[in-house]
Write a structure and sequence with these properties.
With about 280 residues, the chain is of the alpha/beta class. The protein contains 10 helices and 11 strands. The strands form 3 sheets. It has a 6-stranded parallel β-sheet with strand order 1-11-8-7-5-6. A 3-stranded parallel β-sheet has the order 3-2-4, sandwiched between helices. Strands 9-10 form a two-stranded antiparallel sheet. Helix 1 runs parallel beside helix 10, helix 2 crosses helix 10 and helix 6 packs across helix 10. The chain binds NADPH dihydro-nicotinamide-adenine-dinucleotide phosphate and 5,10-Methenyltetrahydrofolate (GUE). The site of NADPH dihydro-nicotinamide-adenine-dinucleotide phosphate has 26 residues, from helix 10. InterPro entries: Aminoacid_DH-like_N_sf, NAD(P)-bd_dom_sf, THF_DH/CycHdrlase, THF_DH/CycHdrlase_cat_dom, THF_DH/CycHdrlase_NAD-bd_dom.
């Protein structure tokens, strides 16, 4: 068997086109949807990622501002700036790029973002809303994974889903979203004994670990859907996921590639969340 590939680039392009259309409608009402991105420090990967986010936004008609601050910025100064952005009606979304320098408490900083502008979906209020099924912003990476499942018309009801990884920004919200669609969800992590015994029984596997070859062909049920969130570098320095793509694609029914899978979807869902924040903030205006 050779798996069908779920093309994240193509699906992300579709979502961006939808966002562009809705952005044009807002602009026709005199509203410019706007995202503020805060980057603290000089992390090279973060510099690349934030540049991508600004370019994606601009191409879609959203206004994006990248604010860069030195690595020694104090928490008080950062919190003050976020409060200003919270108050600014021209700003609809606020994103603080992670990781933050070690002297800053990332969760505390995120809690200062107004939940109405939390387009990353990392605020505890956003996490709580997802947990209890109330409206709120969903974290972009698991949200993008759900869109990928939706794009193949996959019905999660009663299916066994295994999420590998339990971070607050990927694994845990991913599990909640799958649960909300009536999957039977198992969350595995570094203390899980015999990972393979869980994945072999899974109709859907989401790998969000950050280690190469966490999922290999012998661990996958024939025909399963495999979603690879991981971002790693192989020995040649090439980007690769958590899944042994060459092997697993011989067993799985569907698989997402890295690059060109979940990554572009994460970026597209950020645009969708920002647009939604702008629409909600300006409803009836
Ligand atoms: N494509 C995209 O858009 C994005 C990709 N990523 C990538 O996804 C990956 C995960 O990110 P993130 O959730 O932030 O990472 P974290 O490091 O926060 O979480 C990793 C999780 O994997 C678990 N884990 C570690 N080793 C194993 C193992 N051998 N077997 C099973 N579970 C294990 C950890 O368990 P424990 O809790 O016990 O430590 C932890 O829960 C990274 O590669 C990251 O770069 C992240 C965000 C967006
Ligand atoms: N506040 C915050 N929000 C985030 O969403 C956030 C963050 N901080 N910090 C870092 C992680 C990581 N992340 C990625 C998003 C897209 C790609 C992506 O588009 N990847 C491309 C490849 C890009 C390349 O070539 O390097 C792909 O998979 O095709 C990667 C990684 C978002 N993150």
């Amino acid at each position: 068997m050779t798996a069908h590939i779920i093309d994240g680039n193509a699906l992300a392009a579709k979502i961006r086109a939808e966002v562009s259309g809705r952005t044009a409608a807002l602009k026709a009402r005199g509203i410019q949807p706007a995202l503020s991105i805060i980057l603290v420090g000089e992390d090279p990967a973060s510099q690349v990622y934030t540049k991508h986010k600004v370019n994606d936004s601009t191409e879609t008609g959203l206004a994006a501002t990248l604010e860069r601050y030195p690595a020694d910025m104090t928490e008080a100064a950062l919190v003050k700036r976020i409060h200003e952005l919270n108050q600014d009606p021209a700003v609809h979304g606020i994103l603080v790029q992670l990781p933050l320098p070690k002297h800053l408490d990332a969760q505390k900083v995120i809690e200062t973002i107004s939940p109405a502008k939390d387009v990353d979906g990392f605020h505890v209020a956003s996490a709580g809303a997802l947990m209890v099924g109330r409206p709120g912003f969903w974290p972009c990476t698991p949200y993008g994974c759900m869109k990928m499942l939706e794009s193949i018309g996959y019905d999660l009801r009663g299916k066994n889903a295994v999420v590998i990884g339990r971070s607050n920004i990927v694994g845990k919200p991913m599990a909640m979203m799958l649960l909300a669609k009536d999957a039977t969800v198992t969350i595995c992590h570094s203390r899980t004994r015999d990972l393979k015994s869980f994945t072999l029984n899974a109709d859907v596997v989401v790998a969000a670990v950050g280690k190469r070859n966490v999922l290999t062909a012998d661990m996958v049920k024939p025909g399963a859907v495999v979603i690879d969130v991981g971002m790693n570098r192989n020995d040649e320095g090439k980007l690769c996921g958590d899944v042994d793509f060459a092997g697993v694609s011989q067993v799985a029914g569907w698989i997402t590639p890295v690059p060109g899978g979940v990554g572009p979807m994460t970026r597209a869902m950020l645009l969708a969340n920002t647009l939604e924040a702008a629409e909600t903030a300006t409803a009836g205006q």
